[in-house]
Amino acid sequence: MDYVSALVPPVVMAAFFIALVRVIVKTQGGAAKAKEDAAVDAAMARVQSGPSAAGGGSSEA
Questions:
Q1: pLDDT level of residue 49 (50, 70, 90 thresholds)
Q2: Distances from the Cα of 46 to the Cα of 6, 32, 37, 61, angstroms
Q3: Spatial separation of the C-alpha atoms in residues 12 and 3, rounded to whole Å
Q4: Cα–Cα distance for residue pair 5/8, rounded to 1 Å
């Protein structure tokens, strides 16, 4: 019976890991993909536009 108690934690962790991977794979794409892509594109545009646009009006002393 000791072997059962020794195997239960790894089996439970493996089941949760498989479930996590399935959720991650299922949530890729879909309706949220366009929204996420737009957010990344906006962030990249801010970075590429230069520091003056990202920081607003900064006064250097």
A1: confident
A2: 53, 21, 14, 24
A3: 14
A4: 5
Distance CA 38, CA 32 (A): 10
Q: Which residue has the tokens 């990202």?
A: 54
Q: Which H or E run includes 35?
A: helix 31-49
Listed in sequence order, the residues at least 6 apart from 52 whose beta carbon sits closer than 8 Å to its beta carbon are 58
The pLDDT tens digits of the residues spanning 13-43 come to 999 999 999 998 888 877 777 787 888 899 9
